[in-house]
Amino acid sequence: WYAKAISADPQDASSFIGRAEVYLSLTQSAEAMHDLQQALAVSAPNSPEWQKANALRRNLIAKQGGSGRAL
């Protein structure tokens, strides 16, 4: 479903975030990180979508032992 939504509107950050959440639930960290970075790229800085994607990204980095700093 998310792949179809992203194809229809590649500027919709919420679709990237939704798919990233699915990837996270499947422990597919690399795919989740890619989608979170895409969500950050297409959303306005500090918008609700940007904040959610950044929070998920920071949590993922922290789980992987990284710094978790914002972009």
Structure write-up:
The chain has 71 residues and is an all-alpha fold. It is built from four helices and no strands. The protein has helices at 2-8, 13-25, 29-42, 48-63. Helix 2 (13-25) runs parallel beside helix 4 (48-63) and helix 3 packs antiparallel against helix 4 (48-63). The longest helix has 16 residues, at 48-63. The relative contact order is 0.16.
Largest sheet: none
Number of strands: 0
What Rg is obtained from the alpha carbons, in whole angstroms?
Answer: 11 Å
- Percent strand: under 5%
Overall geometric form: flat
List segments where confidence is low: pLDDT < 50 over at least 5 consecutive residues: none
N-to-C span: 28 Å
What's the rounded overall pLDDT mean?
92
Task: Summarize the structure in short.
With 71 residues, the protein is mostly helical. The protein has helices at residues 2-8, 13-25, 29-42, 48-63.
Q: What key attributes describe this structure?
A:
71 residues; mainly alpha; 4 helices; 70% helix; flat
Secondary structure blueprint with pairings:
Elements: H1 2-8, H2 13-25, H3 29-42, H4 48-63
Helix pairs in contact: 1-2, 2-3, 2-4, 3-4
